[in-house]
Design a protein that fits this description.
With about 190 residues, this protein is mainly alpha-helical. It has helices spanning about 1-10, 40-50, 55-145, 155-170, 180-190. One of its GO terms (biological process) is extrinsic apoptotic signaling pathway via death domain receptors. GO terms for molecular function: transcription corepressor activity. One of its GO terms (cellular component) is PML body. Keywords: Coiled coil.
Length: about 190
Amino acid sequence: MEQGFLDHMYGDLGSGHLESPVAHDDDSVDIYSGLDNSPRISQTAEKSCTLFSPRRLKDSMDLYEEIIKEEQQEKEATCNELKTKLDAAQNHVKELLQKLEQIQLQNTSLQTQNMCLKKNICALFKTARMEILRKDDEISRLTQRGGRGGYCPSFTRSQNNFQRNQDSSQNSAPTHNPAARPENQRSRIHKN
């Protein structure tokens, strides 16, 4: 039984095949002798023949063609999806560029308007300063004129009293100026 199993496994070892150069030596055993005739080799040879038969080859090629077609369809679908995403991204970029141009135009307009407003404010400030200086000069002039007997509406009550005291001290001395007399000053105050 063991011999039958070995024969089945390794072929007929005792059939006397002397194809191997080592087989003629009595002390050595050729482990490869009989492999060519073993039933497994004949079965695998038949299988290999059926594997490489034209029909089987065509079927396997059809299988590969289907795989290749599926891969190609997947690639085309991915490519189409990426193209739509690219188009959408390009449209978004165009919209953003248009918005940027509009914002830049608006920014330029606002900067121009800002400069005009700054110039106007500066001119108003200079005008106000000049007007204040002019009014100060007029007040000074009127104050000096009021000191000589003219009417100055900006005098306060204490200034009027001071002026009266001065006039009363001058009444004791004769004056040639009729505007410096207290009677004339009071009449001017009531007239104005």
